[in-house]
């Protein structure tokens, strides 16, 4: 998948023009604080929503330069920043610095073969005891599940990757009450804590 070409051609059907509804509900119930990393942030809607909270410093990263350029066009209102970076090659200065990682449509965008690397990368960015809060795309509803992205995931696969690997501890999961139209019933929200 050539993400940069998709942004240049404005062929970005995943971009809904605003933050994940599940994120907004989550932030209302459980505000984040401290440094927050948003991998695969695209145009930065979720970054800006999290940065509305007073005690957050939010960094959105994306591999596509055009996404980052567009995200930076919004005048920062609070402590939000964007960086062109590959999640699988994060700057060493980020290691162990984040209280939170917010996952939304990055995990489902990467090839299945790189999921172990995804777990390693987000774990590395988090402080011990930091949290990964995520909305996972269980079932993108594609006729051929291997024709993604997006690539779906099962709860069992999440458990193997994040929990049984010893990287994270399970905290909580639930079905989001709200989702973008077309994704209702296809998503799972989960909070896990870095071990
Ligand atoms: C499906 S899009 C979702 C974007 C955004 N989260 C949203 O919901 O609008 C996946 C994003 O992940 C980015 N991405 C893919 N692989 C990446 C990687 N290895 N490191 C950082 N970003 C990556 C893509 O450029 C793209 O912006």
Task: Please summarize what this structure is.
The protein is of the alpha/beta class. The protein is 26% helix and 27% strand.
Protein model, in words:
- The chain has 195 residues and is an alpha/beta fold.
- The protein has a single domain (18-194), classed as Vaccinia Virus protein VP39 (Rossmann fold, 3-Layer(aba) Sandwich), CATH 3.40.50.
- Helices cover 26% and strands 27% of the residues.
- The protein contains 6 helices and 7 strands.
- The protein has helices at 3-8, 21-29, 45-51, 65-71, 115-125, 155-164, and strands at residues 34-39, 56-62, 80-84, 98-104, 126-137, 168-174, 187-194.
- The chain has a 7-stranded mixed sheet, sandwiched between helices.
- Strand 1, helix 3 and strand 2 form a beta-alpha-beta unit.
- The chain is globular, with a radius of gyration of 15 Å.
- Bound molecules: S-adenosylmethionine.
Strand order of the largest sheet: 3-2-1-4-5-7-6
Rounded Rg: 15 Å
Tell me, rounded to a whole number, the average pLDDT.
Answer: 96
Ends: how far apart?
Answer: 32 Å
* Range of strand content: 25-35%
CATH class membership: Alpha Beta
The major β-sheet equals: 7 strands, mixed
Looking at the structure, what is the overall shape? globular
Task: Jot down its keywords.
Rossmann fold; 7 strands; alpha/beta; binds S-adenosylmethionine; 7-stranded mixed sheet; 6 helices; 26% helix; 195 residues; 27% strand
């Amino acid at each position: 998948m050539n993400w940069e070409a998709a942004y240049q051609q404005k062929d970005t059907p995943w971009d809904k023009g605003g933050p994940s509804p599940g994120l907004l509900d989550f932030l209302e119930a459980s505000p984040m604080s401290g440094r927050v990393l948003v991998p695969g942030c695209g145009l930065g809607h979720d970054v800006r929503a999290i940065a509305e909270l007073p005690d957050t410093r939010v960094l959105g990263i994306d591999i596509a330069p055009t996404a980052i350029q567009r995200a930076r066009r919004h005048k920062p209102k609070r402590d939000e920043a964007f960086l062109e970076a590959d999640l699988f090659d994060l700057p060493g200065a980020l290691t162990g610095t984040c209280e939170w990682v917010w996952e939304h449509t990055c995990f489902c965008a990467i090839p299945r073969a790189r999921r172990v690397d995804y777990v390693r990368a987000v774990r590395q960015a988090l402080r011990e005891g930091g949290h990964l809060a995520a909305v996972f795309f269980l079932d993108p509803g594609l006729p051929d599940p291997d024709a993604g992205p997006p690539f779906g995931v099962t709860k069992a696969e999440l458990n193997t990757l994040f929990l049984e690997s010893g990287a994270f501890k399970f905290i909580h999961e639930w079905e989001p009450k709200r989702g973008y139209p077309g994704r209702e019933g296809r998503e799972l929200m989960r909070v896990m804590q870095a071990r």
